[in-house]
Model the fold of this input.
Amino acid sequence: MKPNPSSDISLRPTTILVVDDESSLNLCMRTVLGKSGFRTEPFLTGKAVLDRLTSENIDLLLLLDYSLPDMTGARIVELLDACGLDIPFAMVSADGSEDLVTRMLDLGALDFIIKTPQFIGALPARIRRICDCIEASRRLGGMEDALNRARREKHEMEEQLAHARKMEPLGMLAAGIAHDFNSILGGMIGYAEMLALNLDPGSRLAAYADHIMNSGMRAAELTNRLLSFSRKGGIEKTPVDAHACVRQVCGMLRHSLDKRIDIVCRLRAERSTVMGDMGRLENALLNLAINARDAMPEGETLTFETRNADYPLALRENEGMPTPRGPCIAIAVSDTGTGMDEETRTRIFAPFFTTKKPGKGTGLGLASVCAAVRHLGGHLAVETEHQKGSTFTIYLPLMKEESQHQSAKGRMSSGRPANAESQCQIGMTGRGAILVADDEPVIREITCDMLSSMGYTAHACENGAQAIEYYQQTHSTINAVILDSIMPGMTGLQCLNKLKEINPDIKALIISGHTTPEAETRALEEGAKAFLMKPFKREELREVMEKILK
Done:
């Protein structure tokens, strides 16, 4: 529906000033708005739009990009206020952080539009809704009804933001729990492995030890997959088999979803390797599955399906966002649930938007899916019809075949040992003394036992302070140190910096039950020779120690 040309100009904005320094995106926004009957004007800088507004003040609506070359969108609004110009505005940004959204709404923004893959297609409906609100508000002349509605909306937003803030500390709590849990698993796996080394490889007892070790490793992988859901910051892009990722998610869902939901998995793509982060992709698929579950309260069918496609053919023309070209894998997650009407569909990727009852959802699930797909260099599309179900499709660029072969070759040459039997043949090749500092007795003891079984002499300390005191007295005889990243009173890196004052050439390995690419990089920058994630196997420790002591 196009704007009504007969609307009173004093009540309804007549021109949309599109302010965005990305000329292609500016043109994209003006094109879709123009097709919907809106009159638009383009501006690439804050100064240009300020000159326009101060020289000719007609009834306008500002569509402001927050980040401009010469000033922020917030600064433009402040300058207009200083000139006594009350121009309605909506803010546009690729940054959807809670802090920025809150500040812009408090500043007076009528809407905060995040640059998601779908935002261009949904833009006319959102602008029309803003214009409707402006017209209704002006027609009511600031009557109590409009004010009450604004108060209610603000109160709902504040509640949603408060709920989202409560979720953030859970990520920190999960990190601490993961560190402790992986330490416990490290002891279990380590002792099972040491037991296997001292048993006949073909015996039933050796098989039992193998089962314990493999179960522990699966538990560690599950811990890390769940933990990555709360992880912030950048991602480490590595080759990922999307089919393996889908299988993992389907396996988890079969144990956790309502048994009335039939999970169907159709992996039809011939090529499935992409560059990305497996944890992020799994989280995106899990979020889509949870949304599908909520749309099917009585059960029915949840389908995961893959196929190969080309970007120009796969994406609808009216999405409006520039997309990569070339071969990709399409991962479709479909449900046979309630579906959505068009108005809901245009808002589903907005942060905090939810159709669930209070306390049942944060409104961040699909927004996080969208962000994850964007970080992976892909595109997210949705098809839905009220009472007929929904299909969310993730398009990810395929890894080039030559790069895939090189990666596979690298993994074959540096992978973990296939089983405990191969480890039993490893002799005592280690030479030298190693200082181990870890506050967990089990990890401290099993690490020392592993080192001793390799031929090293191991010395154990309970914390960083004890390690510094011991190293001060014996550093001339210590060849390397192993430091837990999280210990009471002093972290592993703080301890390392103190040890470097004693011996600047110290060779240190940092071990941790929870890490991020950023934490590993920081450890290496501060002087650690290597970083090893708990739980680790004997062979992994042996390889790292040989590398450090070369």
Summary: The radius of gyration is 29 Å. Residues 95 and 250 are 32 Å apart (CA to CA). DSSP finds 19 helices and 17 strands in the chain.
